[in-house]
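Project outcomes to date are best conveyed with an example. Our students and postdoctoral researchers have been running inverse folding experiments weekly, and each run begins with a structure described purely in tokens. The record below, which covers 175 residues, was selected by the lab manager from last quarter's runs and is presented without edits.
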């Protein structure tokens, strides 16, 4: 039986996530894979589909709704690959009881506000040029060694070379 891998979108959800297909293509032969649109999980209204509006909805209850929805949908042990806001949702869900073996979060800058660390393997990727990534003291307090990718920004996770890097790390368990 293949291990379960769930993929959590960034704040754009499926509408602007065609790049996720590259992760799915590389990982689906090895995992029982399920994708989740974080906008759907968080009951985000996409009528005014812009970054500021989506972000405001997530931070004003959407993250919590998404966490609760994910906890209802996933009852067994999972590995999580999550992007941006999806990483924050996965982190909080793990703290609330989601059975996570490994949490791989990419560009999940809102983690800088978290003070507790989930009881699972954690691998965090950030772009060197992502101004909102947690600072060094946050990583030290959480006892996490992140992978900071040189000359990369927040959206590094949509780039082919980075997609291959992450998928190879997952498949080789070099996390």
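After processing, the design step wrote out the following sequence:
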């Amino acid at each position: 039986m293949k291990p379960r891998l769930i993929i959590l979108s960034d704040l754009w959800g499926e509408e602007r996530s065609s790049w996720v297909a590259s992760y799915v293509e590389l990982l689906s032969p090895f995992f029982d894979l399920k994708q989740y649109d974080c906008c759907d999980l968080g009951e985000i209204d996409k009528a005014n589909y812009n970054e500021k509006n989506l972000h405001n909805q997530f931070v004003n209850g959407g993250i919590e709704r998404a966490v609760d929805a994910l906890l209802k949908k996933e009852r067994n042990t999972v590995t999580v690959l999550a992007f941006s806001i999806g990483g924050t949702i996965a982190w909080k869900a793990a703290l609330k009881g989601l059975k996570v073996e490994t949490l791989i979060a990419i560009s999940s800058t809102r983690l800088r506000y978290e003070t507790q660390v989930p009881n699972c393997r954690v691998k965090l990727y950030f772009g060197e040029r992502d101004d909102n990534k947690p600072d060094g003291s946050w990583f030290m307090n959480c006892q996490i060694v992140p992978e900071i990718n040189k000359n990369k920004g927040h959206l590094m996770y949509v780039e082919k070379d980075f997609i291959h890097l992450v998928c190879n790390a997952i498949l080789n368990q070099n996390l």
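The two ends are 22 Å apart (CA to CA). The first helix runs from residue 20 to 27. The training component of this project remains on track.
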